[in-house]
Amino acid sequence: MTLLDLQGLTKAYPGVVANSDISFAIGKGQIHALLGENGAGKSTLVKTIYGLVRPDAGTMTLEGAPFTPTDPRAARAAGIAMVFQHFSLFDALTVAENIALGMENPPKQRELAQRIREVSENYGLPLSPDRIVGDLSAGERQRVEIIRCLLQDPKLLIMDEPTSVLTPQEVEILFGTLRLLASEGTSILYISHKLEEIRALCEHATVLRLGKVVGTCDPRETTSRDMAELMVGSTLMTPKRDSETLGDDVLVIEGLTAPAPHQFGTALKNISVSVKSGEVLGIGGVAGNGQDELVAALSGEMPVSAAMVSLDGQAIGHLDPNTRRKIGLCAAPEERNGHAAAPDMTLTENALMTAKTRLGLSKNGFLDWASARDFALSVIDGFDVRTPGPETAARALSGGNLQKFVIGREILQKPRVLVVNQPTWGVDASAAAAIRQALLDLAGEGSAVVVISQDLDEILEIADRFAALNEGTLSPAVPTAGLTMERIGLMLGGAHDMEAAHVEA
Amino acid sequence: MLRLEKRPQPSKNWSYGAPLLAVVLTIILGMGLFAILGKDPVIAIKTIFWDPVFGQFAHFYRPEVVKKAAPLVLIAVGLSFGFRAGIWNIGAEGQYIIGAICGAGVALAVYPYDTRWVLFPLMIVAGALGGFLWAMIPALLRVFFKTNEILVSLMLVYVAEVLIKAFSIGLLRNPEGYGMPGSRNLRQYPAAANLDLISGTGFHWGALTAVFAVVVAYVMFTRHQFGFNVRLAGQSPRAAGFAGVNANKLIIVCLGLSGAMAGLAGLFEVAGPSGQILGSFPSYYGFTAIIVAFLGRLNPIGILLAGLLMALTYIGGQAAEAQLNLPSAAILTFQGMLLFCLLAVDVLTNYRFKIGKAEVR
C-alpha cells in the first residue's frame, strides 16, 4: 500500500536543476532509502516533501489525496515529520521544554514529561525529560528530536543523515527504534550515503544523481559496490598498491602518555607502535577515544616528552608543528573548518598555512605569494578540487572538496610520515576512493602513513596493519590480511558503557 | 520580507564601499540633527568637514588636524595587530601616559644636557620601552595566570592617570615653576623638543613615525609571516595552533607592540604639542584610537584615513562649536553617529539583503 507518491517533481534554482522529474513511491511501513552523493538533490527533495521548498512542477499524493504543503506546519499536520542533520535545540533548556517549544499546542509540562517517558520507553530511546540538553551527547540530542517527531504520531518520518553523529552502539539503538516504528506502520524515508547502513536497515532504495532518479534497488540484495557505482555513475576504482615493499621503521611511538588537554578530552595512556617506510597503519575506534589527542601529539600541537615520538631515529616529541614538518611529519586533523583549514582565508592562504616550511614559501619571514598560489593550484588540479580558483575562501567550498584540498595539501608536500584523521569523512564515494588511492601512492613512494578512521571498511581497504584506540590506549597492531570484523570488534573492546537498547519488538 | 543572507565570501567592493557609505549616511543624519537644533545644516557640515581643510583659515586648522591624527594613527596601527589576533588591549591610554612619563623623564633627568642627537633618540627609546613594559603587565598575567587582558589593561589606565598626576606635582615638577604643578616645558628645551619637521605644517616626528608605522604594518599584513600568523590566530585559533603559531608568544608580541607604539605616541605628544607632564595630559587618544582602528577596519591604510577623518571631526567640531554656537554634546553625538553608521553598514561586507522568504537548496 502506498503512503506517499511523488510524480515528476522538478525544482530548478538559478544555474542548477536540483530535482528533475523525480517520481517514486513510499509504501506504508516501508523503510525507504534515498541515496545519492553530495549535491545529488536529496535535500531539495525532502525539503519539498516537508513544505520548505515548493516544486516548479510535479505532484505529490499522500494516502490518495493531493498533498501540497505550503510550509512545514502544514506538512506536520498531514503527518510528515523530519529529523534534521543539524539539531535545533536550546542547550539551556530541559528535554521537555525543548520538545514543548516545537509543538503547536503543548500540553502541561507534567503531562508532556509523562508522554515523553512513555514514548522513550516504548521505542527504546532512553531519555529523561528533565535533563538539560546542554549535557546530552549527540546521540541523546537526536533522540530528543526523534521523540519530538514521534509525539505527533507521524505517518512518514524523514531522517537526514542520522548516523553521522552517532557511535556504532547508538546506531544500533536507532535502527532498533526505526524497525519498530516501521513494523507499526510508520513509513521512514532514510537519507544517507553510508551504504552498509542502508543495506542493514532499508528494504527499498531510490538512487539520485544530479537531480534525477537513476535507479532503484533492494539494498538487502545489492552489494555496496553496485549501489556506490549507481550513485557515482561510473565504475568505482578500488584503491590498490603498486608495490608492497616495507622498509625500516620511520615513525616510532614509544610509551606515549599525555594528560587530557581539556575537560572533555581523553588522556593518552602508554601508546606504543611503529610504522615502517611504505606501510599504512590504520587506527580504528569510536570517536572520542583519544583520536584528536593522538593527532595533536603527533602533529606537534600538543608537545610531549621528546622520546615518546621519533622519526627516523630522531626524537621529535617535544618539537613544535613547523619543526616537525621540516623534519618530515605532516598531519591533517579531522575538523576541516577552523582546524585543518581557516574558513575565512583563501585557498592560497590555506595552502601556505602548512606548506610554507617544507616548500620554502617563506624567506626571512617574507611570504612568497606567487609560489603559494602555484602550490594551491597544483593541489586543486591534482586532487580535483571543485572551486572557481585559489583566491576562493575555504568556507565557500563544500565539505568534500575542502577535505580533498586539505589532504592534497599534505600529500603534495611529500612527507616522510603523514598522519590523517578521518580522511574521507563527509566525502562522496568517488572522492573518497581518490583520497585513499593518493594515500596508498604516498606509501608506495616510501612514506609511512597513519590513517585514523572510524570507518572500518576504509581501514581494511588500505591499511597494512590495524590497531584499535580505546579510551586512550592503543591495542597492539595486527596485520589486516585475514582480519575479521568479529576480531576487530573484540579489539575495539566492549569497554564502552552504553545503555543497552530496550526494544520490545 | 527583508532578510540578511551570508555571502559565500566577503565582498571586496563592499569592504571599500561601506566606509564611504557610512560617511555619507552620517552627513545626512548629522544634517538632520543640526537642522533640529536650528542651525543651517549645510553650513554646519561645511564648517566641520570643509573649512578646516579648504576654508579661509585652513592654514590654522590643517596643522591641528595633523597633530591630532598622528597619535591616533600611531596607536591604532599598534592596536590593529592585537585586535586582528583577538588580543584586546583596551589600555593603550595607560601605555601612552607611561610612555610620556618615561620619555619626558629621561629628558628632565639630564636637563640641561644639549646634544640633541643623543638625547632625542634616547627619549624615543624610553617612551617606547615605557609603553612596552606597561603592556607587559596584562600580557604576562594573561600568559601565566590566564587573566583577562581587557580588564587588566583597562584598569592600568587609571593607575597611569594617578601616576602622571603624582609625577606632575612631585618628581618631575618644574623647579623653576614657582610651585605650579607640571614639569618643565619640553618645547622650550631644544635638545628634547618634538617640533614640526616643516615649520607650520604640524608634521612632527610623531606624524612621520605614524606614516612609517602605516607602511610597515601594511607590508607586515600583506607580505610577512608575522602578519599572516596574526590574521590566522584571529580567524581560526585552532588552525593557527595547527600551523605552528605559538599563542602565548603572539599575546606577548601583540600587546608589547601596541604598548610600545602607544608609548611612542605619548612621548611625541609630551615633547611636542603638549610640551609638559601635567595632570591634564591624558587626552583619551588611547581610547579614541580603538575607534580609529575599527573605523579603519584594522587595515593600516584604512587607519590612516580614519585617523585623519576622526581628527577632522574633532577640529571641525571645535570650530563649529565656536562659530555656530553648537553645544559640544551635539558634536559628540555626531561623532557617535559616524561610528554607529560604520558598524551598521559593515554588515554588508559579509551579508547581503535578500527580499523574499527563506528557501534553502
Task: Explain the overall architecture.
The complex is a heterodimer of chains A (505) and B (361). Chain A is α/β, with parallel strands linked by helices. Chain A has two domains: 2-232, P-loop containing nucleotide triphosphate hydrolases (Rossmann fold); 249-492, P-loop containing nucleotide triphosphate hydrolases (Rossmann fold, 3-Layer(aba) Sandwich). Chain A contains 16 helices and 23 strands. In chain A, strands 13, 16, 19, 20, 21, 22 and 23 form a seven-stranded mixed β-sheet that branches. Chain A has a six-stranded mixed β-sheet with strand order 6-7-8-3-9-10, with helices on both faces. In chain A, β1 and β2 (16-27) form a beta hairpin. The radius of gyration of chain A is 24 Å and the shape is globular. Chain B has a single domain, classed as ABC transporter involved in vitamin B12 uptake, BtuC, CATH 1.10.3470. Chain B contains 13 helices and two strands. Chain B has a two-stranded antiparallel ribbon with strand order 1-2. In chain B, α2 (41-54) crosses α12 (300-324), α4 packs antiparallel against α5 and α12 runs antiparallel to α13 (328-350).
Give the topology, please:
The complex is a heterodimer of chains A (505) and B (361).
Chain A: E1 2-13, E2 16-27, E3 31-35, H1 42-49, E4 57-62, E5 65-66, H2 72-77, E6 80-83, H3 95-101, H4 109-122, H5 138-150, E7 156-160, H6 168-183, E8 187-192, H7 195-201, E9 204-209, E10 212-217, H8 224-232, E11 249-258, E12 268-276, E13 280-284, H9 291-299, E14 309-311, E15 314-315, H10 321-327, E16 329-332, H11 347-359, E17 362-363, E18 366-367, H12 369-382, H13 399-411, E19 417-421, H14 429-444, E20 448-452, H15 456-462, E21 465-470, E22 473-474, E23 478-479, H16 485-492
Parallel strand pairs in A: 3-8, 3-9, 6-7, 7-8, 13-20, 13-21, 16-19, 19-20
Antiparallel strand pairs in A: 1-2, 1-4, 4-5, 9-10, 11-12, 11-14, 14-15, 17-18, 21-22, 21-23
Chain B: E1 2-6, H1 12-36, H2 41-54, H3 58-85, H4 92-110, H5 116-145, H6 149-169, H7 205-223, H8 225-235, H9 237-242, H10 247-271, H11 285-295, H12 300-324, H13 328-350, E2 351-355
Helix pairs in contact in B: 1-2, 1-13, 2-3, 2-12, 3-7, 3-8, 3-10, 3-11, 3-12, 4-5, 4-6, 4-10, 4-11, 5-6, 5-10, 7-8, 7-12, 11-12, 12-13
